[in-house]
Amino acid sequence: MRLPLLAASLLALAACAPPAQVSKNGPSPEVGVGFGDAATYRAMLAPASGSSLVRDFMDLTFAMESGRSLDTFSRFEGPVTVAMTGKAPPTAARDLGVLIGRLRSEAGIDISPATGAATITVEFATRADLRRMAPTAACFVVPNVSSLAEYRRKRGSEAVDWASVTRRERAAIFIPADTSPQEVRDCLHEELAQALGPLNDLYRLPDSVFNDDNFHSVLTAFDMDILRMTYSPALSSGMSRSEVAARLGSSYASATGNPPDWTHAIETALGRNGSLAARKAAAERALALAKAAGWQDGRAAFSYFALGRLMAGSEPQRALDAFQRAGALYARLPGGELQLAHVDMQLAAMALAGGLPEQAARLADRAIPVVRRYENAALLATLMLIKAEALESLGNPAAADALRMDSEPWARYGFGPDSVVKARMRDIAAVADRAARG
After folding, report:
1. pLDDT given for residue 18 in this prediction
2. Do the beta carbons of residue 70 and residue 162 sit within 8 Å?
């Protein structure tokens, strides 16, 4: 299940902004964006290996996001087919095709597109319809159904309870059609990965979509290794936890999990419910728990990051300190360069607002190549627009205009229709304008 992302201030534009509501006309069918091929992407991250990979696989496979444990290993046995139904956005078929190709070549899964009945059905519906089924999810996957109508009939029954599944036969992925092309793609990656493999997310994983921090938009090399293990010939549906561990040649022992209090605090801080004051208090609590536990990993960094985002509008100095501490932690973590780029975007926006265009441009320049490699068009467009405003402030309007034009295809893919893109541009320009007037 992909969670909706928190809307805060300008400083959360790309890192954790909510998907844009698309107008009735929808986004442009061709947005003109292109990223590296699968081989290039896989080369960015060294796959995990040995006992740590087995540990992560077991912790992802034998639990759900809710914390509920699973007693039985399940997967699809035999070829998997995927079909789309409903009003699919124009970019969805291309993005699904790329994803299926990666799953075949990188994870070794026998998966292919279908035009009729399929093992996995991707149904596009309105955001309003989906929220009636799953109020807290941006998109989600359900076993043993092939349509939203079938899910309505079976909702609440054992048939759609993942804990009751011992062998996967069918599944349906539900994605809002009225959202940005990037959000559709991100939902395809996360939900198809969960339909095929693990149902859990772990905050400790720095380089994975199986992590509710939502930093990663597309499946990583680590994720492909986890899925490859899921479809290993040594495993089969119905195996117990101990049988799977034995087949993987490991005397598996689970890693120490996150304290429930910390997870609850983070989810409250990032959620839609509750006042801003309540979310700030939750972020403070999460950070206090991380410090008390002595963490120096991604969970500690994310605690600082969440606090910084919530403090940006009211306590900028505290937000700056929190972002700097998050950045220092991410910079030391293997696989943390994308997270650091998210921090750089926040710091660049703060530098722009503080009348420091040179610093804003330097931070954007450091983050842009990383973000381009990790295929986050919304974050890339935001960084380009921040740098454009910095160039404007530095007396180079021609370069600023050229960069704004270059950002448009990425912004349309990342944010959706032109009205939303223009609103983002105005927001960032307003930050620079306030700094100039101040």
Report:
1. 33
2. yes
